[in-house]
Amino acid sequence: MNNIPVMELHSSTENNVTITQTTCPYCGVGCGVTATVENTVIGQKVSVIGDVNHPSNYGKLCIKGNNLADTIGLQTRVLHPMLGRKVDAEHAYAYTRQQTDWDTATDLIAHKFQHYMNEYGRDSIAFYVSGQLLTEDYYVVNKLVKGYLGTANIDTNSRLCMSSAVAAHKRAFGEDLVPASYEDFEHTDMVVLVGSNTAWCHPVLYQRIMQAKEKRDLFVVVIDPRFTATCEAADLHLPILIGQDVSLFNGLLQYLYQHGHADHEFIQAHTQGLDALLDSSQPESDIENVATKTGISLEKLQLFFDKFAQTKKVMTLFSMGVNQSSRGVDKANSIINAHLLTGKIGKLGAAPFSMTGQPNAMGGREVGGLANMLAAHMDLDNVQHQQLVQGFWNSPTIATQVGLKAVDLFEAVESGKIKAIWIMATNPVVSLPNADQVKRALDKCEFVVVSDICKDTDTTQYADVLLPALGWGEKDGTVTNSERRISRQRAFLDAPEQAKADWWAVSQVAKKLGFHGFDFENSYDIFKEHAQLSAYQNAEISQRSKTETFRYFNLQGLTELSLDEYNELEPVQWPVFQKNQTDNSYAQLFANGQFSHADGKAKFIATTAIDPVNQTDSEYPLILNTGRIRDQWHTMTRTGLSANLSSHKAEPFCEIHPNDALKYGLKEGELVEIKSAWGNCVLRAVVSDSIRRGQIFAPIHWNDQFASDARIGKVVNPVVDAISGEPEFKHTPVMIQPFYTQWQGVFYVRESFEHMVKSPIENTVWWTKIQTAKAVRYELADRRRFTQTTEHLKELLPFEDESFEWLNLEDQTAHISHSVVLQDGQLIASLYIAPKALLPDRDWVASLFKRERLSAMHRKALLAGQAMSMGNNEGALVCSCFKVGKNRIIETIKEKNISNEKQVTACLKAGGNCGSCLPEIRGLIKACQAEAAE
Question: Minimal CA–CA distance to 673: which of 558, 783, 749?
């Protein structure tokens, strides 16, 4: 509900226990969470559960949210300002990193920025920020850059996930608007999920859709090149060829128009541009032609078109599979066009819905976080908007030209056009396409500032100044989720050491540059100014004809909040025109047919279907598609710390069709090398018929802290959408081949001893790191012959003093070597080198690190590399919450003749907590049923 009452305290302390309502820092669903901090004699104990009163999730959390408490330790944190690069670059300015204080660090930043502006101009400075920032951080940095430094060279990692949707919204609606709410998914009759593995990437919203499907006749369509977890419960899966979304939705539009399903009354009263769109989409007027171009069967296309035509209330959710494309803006507009043609917009249960990836991507859009935007949904190239923002800020200058977008920005860094860059809360050396180019750029850049919570990331090593930021649980401010809902993210932990809020760090530098307007005392001061700017010369919808600056983004009702009211702010959807706004009138925007273009009408956008850029050829015959997995987040700097989150998909992998695996000589579970014109990486092969022939899929998460050679960003091409600048993460031509090694193995070391073996590990040809409950596991491979590994084993296990007890077993002829290290009866390390089929069960070995002492039987089993009883072999983990594996689920399904996932939950608890594994359980049930039917 849209209400802002002052309710009970959202943070309370009793009996050394503090309970705080805050917001999850992961995906764009924006779930509310309740964090409990208990002060004990051995320190603070933190637990996190869902907030049952938050309207985005009503207490539900996914597996990542449920394990938030695992990720807030200080073991990887940067806690003091640091000067000097960690790496030895080839430049005279490279030096050893030293601890310093905030005053010295901000003095240096201000001095360097002033020097570069004087010598090379304002555009020699750039910022690259993140959807991980709170709105208040985002606002202050954009105010400094665009209103005081006078450049628009500030972009955000949100460019990589939703900038195509932003451009599409502005073209169609006149403003960047998601016109619906999560509630709409409970009232619709048809949900179309386009380019979204919602079950894994936005699990809580997916479960909400599934619950609605259980209660009513809800038809679910998934449009995705792969058969993903989201497809398991779908009524229809359309396995589209990568890049052909415009063909599909142009075909849908032509079909709707030809068969009398256009809402001519709505079109006449509230839209423009239909004739041009009908002309541009004429090639898709033949459904057989659409079937050929999209690779979807004629039967499935006909069913989809008929269902969309005959269903009054349709919600079309689109995400990264649409946005991350060289044609992402046209793809999004082709979806919006179909809704405008049929009037399926502005009504409960009917709308196009862009699902953002990050927790505050929407908040960043509100404050003009992208290089082509001004704050408060105003346009950077609009002179009136420039004057309005500059006048409100009373700033000395204002950016008047669009700045460099992410890919172009780092190319400008490498060329020397950008002399200084400040990177905040993001890891572009991993996340950007052609990622090694970003490495080269930062290595060459004269002055790099990085604000982060992690000391060692692929990006922080290039920092000349490394600033300690606040992490989740320490930050205080607001975020806005995908349904335009503003929520408070409240601090429940003290700031560690010298860590500071990003807005504070930016304000310090701004003041040292001599700028006024940055005397903020807290996030409340910033939020009020942000709200006031949103309402400044911005009329309500009923008065829109009186102003040329009408915008739906308007927080007028929040401009007079007191500090207490801000602290107790309930989740609220914008626009907020009045204080204590309690009705739900703006949950569905455009209900009155009023859009944000000057004439109040929406625009059909003519979209032409063309083939993707960079088609395959004989050298690079396959298409690489990238995306997320269920239990990890972005570049793993946070989720990689959790043993629970590291167990579902433990290693970097790529999926490939069985026929392609046979063609290229690849085997399940073996290492493969993927190469493109931009780079290469090494991953574990997963052979699966869930992916089409000619395509491979790899996740985006692994970085150089967790694997030797798995940064998929190195391989991804840097082609971008000409309008949005969003990169093409879904279509890179690649080749694939086996990655040959002499041996493979698995190595475990107790956490407290990991520092002793890290360097030797990194000398192996290939490795990947997995966090377990008490130890760190490394999967290893090397090209040295097995007979030459003796010295290498000693490097890996440097436990030489008399307190360590060694157990060894070696068989050169069988290529087997087992080494176990104990101390006072406790397991310290174990190393197994053997043929893949003879390596031990990983979960069993990890479990032995939890024991205080090992029995004689455990020692024998450990040395043998085989558990005393394999009867409890769970197999690959499915349910991370209750640690239930694939083998046990299959055995239970067959034994009890199970037909639905609820029965599995009743027997094994699997799926009974966060629900993230339910799609996978459904898939196992279907597989067992198919096997029984043969």
Answer: 783
115 is written with which tokens? Answer: 């020097």
| Protein fold of 622-738 | Barwin-like endoglucanases (2.40.40)
pLDDT digits (tens, 9 = 90+) for 476-528: 999 999 999 999 999 999 999 999 999 999 999 999 999 999 999 999 999 99
Element (H, E) at 36: strand 32-40
Name the token pair of 220: 């679910």
Whether 541 contacts 586, CB under 8 Å: no
Token couple for 364: 């960043």
Q: Please write down the HEC assignment for all residues of 839-869.
A: CCCHHHHHHHCCCCCCCHHHHHHHHHCCCCC
Determine how β-strand 743-750 pairs with β-strand 732-738. Answer: unpaired
Q: For residues 725 and 723, give the distance between their C-alpha atoms in angstroms, rounded to a whole number.
A: 6
Sign of CA dihedral 691, 696, 701, 707: positive
Other C-beta atoms within 10 Å of 102: how many? 16
SS3 at position 725: coil
- DSSP class of 727: B
Note the pLDDT tens digit of each residue in 625-678: 999 999 999 999 999 999 999 989 999 999 999 999 999 999 999 999 999 999
Query: Is the separation of the CB atoms in 481 and 100 below 8 Å?
Result: no
Which regions of the chain carry the CATH code 3.40.228.10? 163-354
Question: Domain 82-158+405-550 adopts which CATH fold?
Answer: Rossmann fold (3.40.50)
State CA 151 to chain mean position distance: 28
H or E element at residue 907: helix 901-908
Cβ neighbours, 10 Å, residue 532: 16
Cα distance between residue 23 and residue 30, in whole Å? 6
Q: Which CATH class is domain 163-354?
A: alpha beta
Tokens matching residue 303: 């069913």
Distance CA 425, CA 439 (A): 17
Q: Please check whether residue 380 is in contact with residue 368, taking contact to mean a CB–CB distance below 8 angstroms.
A: yes
* Cα gap 292→265, rounded to integer Å: 33
Would you list the DSSP string of 44-105? EEEEEEE-TT-TTTTT---HHHHTGGGG--STTB--S-EES-SS--SSTT----EE--HHHH
3-state DSSP call for residue 829?
strand
Give span(s): CATH 3.40.50.740, the chain: 82-158+405-550
Return the amino acid letter for 880: S
Q: What is the pLDDT of residues 897-934, one digit of tens each?
A: 999 999 999 999 999 888 889 999 999 999 999 888 87
Q: Residues 774-806: pLDDT tens digits? A: 999 999 998 877 665 556 667 778 888 889 999
Q: Are 648 and 631 in contact (CB under 8 A)?
A: yes
Alpha-carbon gap, residue 927 to 384, rounded angstroms = 61
